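Self-study notes.
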Amino acid sequence: MSDLAKIPFILFTMILTENYVLVQFLGICPFLGVSQNLSSSLGMSGAVIFVMTLASAATWAIYTYLMVPFGLEYLSTIIFILVIAALVQLVEIAMKKFLPPLYKALGIYLPLITTNCAVLAVTLLNIDEGYGFLPAVADGFGAGVGFALALVLFCGVRKALDRARPPKAFEGLPITLVAAAFTSMAFMGFSGMAESLFG
C-alpha cells in the first residue's frame, strides 16, 4: 500500500478506533483537567493538534536524516521529548502574546503538553510502524484530532454531570471517572470498522 493510500486508514484509526485518550488511555491528565469548559477544551485541542502534527514531522525527519545515519536511534525518546518541549514553548509564547485569556484559562495544562504521554507516543509509534513522512504527519494530525474529539465530547458529558445528582460517594472525581469509562466504551464500538472499511 502506498503512503497516500495509507492516510485515510491512519486518520480513521487515530480518530476513532485507536483514539489515544478513550481507547489507549493516554493523555488523561489534560483530558480531565481542561474538559470542564468548552473554550479551554477547544484551545487545548488546537494546541495539541498543532504540537502532535509538527512533532510527528520534526521527529520523523530528525530520526531519518540525523539519528539513523549516526547510529543514535537509542536516543529517540530523549530527543523526541526535547523536540516536543520546544514546540510547546513555541505554542505557549504565541498564546501568551496573541490569546492571553485562553493562555490564562489553560494555566498549568498548557506546559503539561510537554509531558503528555500521548504526544510522545505518537512520535514513537511513527518510528515503530515504519511510516514514511506523509503517513507520520497524518498519524500525528489524526491523533490530535482524536484527542480534540474526546475532549470536546467529554466537555458535553461533564456539562450534563453538573446537572446530575450522583450519590454522595460519587460526587466530584469519582463520577467523572465513571463517565469517562462509559464514553470510552462507546468509542470501543468502532473497533474492527477500520479493517472492514479500508481492508
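Second protein, same conventions, sequence then structure:
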Amino acid sequence: MNSWTETLPQAARDYIAGRRVDEVECIIGDIAGVARGKAMPASKFAKQPHYFLPNSIFLQTITGEWADNPSGLFTEPDMYLVPDFSTTTAAPWTADITLQVIHDAQDQAGNPVPTAPRNVLRRVVELYNARGWSPVVAPEMEFFLTARNLDPNMPVMPPMGRSGRRAAGKQAYSMSAVDEYGKVIDDIYDFAEAQGFEIDGILQEGGAGQVEINLAHGDPVRLADEIFFFKRLIREAALRHDCFATFMAKPIEGEPGSAMHIHHSVVDTATGQNIFSNADGSETDAFLHFIAGMQNHLPGAVALLAPYVNSYRRYVPDFAAPINLEWGRDNRTTGLRVPVSGPEARRVENRLAGMDCNPYLGIAASLACGYLGLVEGKPPRDECTGDAYNIETDLPYNLGDALDLLEEDKALVEVLRPEFCSVYDSVKRNEYKEFLQVISPWEREHLLLNV
C-alpha cells in the first residue's frame, strides 16, 4: 500500500486488502448536502495535499441555479479543500477499487470557510467544547423505496415487491413487508459493512415502501458524515434493483413523510457523565434548560430542518408528524420526546427534522437550540401528558415564513454565524421563488375552468 493508505480507518484498509486503489473521490457537501468535488487517479491524489474549488458551490441551489451573493461580489475565489483522512471509506458499488474522502473547506489563509455546512456543525460542537461539554447525537433515517419515476409530471409510486405486488402502506414494523424488498436491504447492509458503518437496526415504517435505519449514538460530526455517505449508498443499493430511494420529506400523496429524528444528550467532558442526570438519577436543571432552548429557538431553526417547499407537506395533522413544540416523556405526539431510558442515557429527541435536510445543518441547528437553552438557563413550558397533535403551534407552515423566523432569531443566527445564515437565506429564497413560478396540477384541475 502507498504510505497515505497506511493510516486510513480499518474498514478502508480491509476493503483495499492489498489491492491497488484505482480512484479517489474528493468530496464535500454543499448547502443541500449534495456531494460536490473531483474524482482523480489514486496516484495523483497521493501526491496532492489539497485541491481547489470555487467557494460559489455554496451559492448553488438544488435546481443548479446560482443564488445572489449577499456580499454583492461574485468573483468565485478558490478555496482549499483539505482531506480528512479519518472519513475515508469505500465506494463498494463501483467496478474498480474506489475510495471516498470528505474534505474540509478552508480559505487561502487557512481559515475554515464559514459557509461550508460541515464547518457550521463543527463550530457549534466547539461552542459546547469551550464550556466543558461534549454533545452526543443518535439520528434516525427514514426514506422511501419507490418505483423508478422517469417523468416528474407523474406521481411517485411504491416499488414492486418480490410478491409481484406493490409495497403496501400501514405495515409499520412488519417483517414480511421488509422482506418484499429484502435484496435492497441486503445490499444496504453489505455496503455499510464495507464502509465501516454500524447500523443499529432496520425496520418497516408506516408508509408504502418506507424504511427506517437507526444509527448508534456518537460524535455529531462523525454521524453527520455517516448520514451524508448513507444517502448515497442507499440510493446505489436501490438502483441495483430497479427502484429509487428518496429522502424527500413527502414523496407520495396520502402517505406519511420521512423524518430524521435526532436524539441528543450532553456529556461533561472531564467526567464523562451525562449532564442531564444527577448522581441520584434524577433530572438536572440542565436537562430542562436544554428542552427550553429547543422550544424557544426551534421556530427559527425550522428553515434548516425543513429546507424545501415539499418539507412542509410533512407538517400536517394525523400523519405521525408532531407539528408542535411541546415536550413529554415517552409521548410520540410531542415534537420533543424524552424516550424511556436509564439516567446515563437520558436524552431529548427532536422529532421535527425532515430527512430532506442537510445532515450537517440539521444536526447543527438542533444542537444550537439546545446550546442556547443551556446558556440562557430558562425553564421549559409544562410537560404535555396528553395528545399534542392538535395543540396550536408557533412553527412556520411554509419556507418563506421559516426563513423570516430564522432571520429574526438573532441569538441563533449568531451561533450559526451571520455569514452562513445570509448565504443560506439567499439560496433558499431563490429556490422558493423558482417554485412559485411552477403551475401545479391542482391549480390546472380546479382553477382552469372554474374561476
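Instructor comment on the second fold: The chain has a mean pLDDT of 93.
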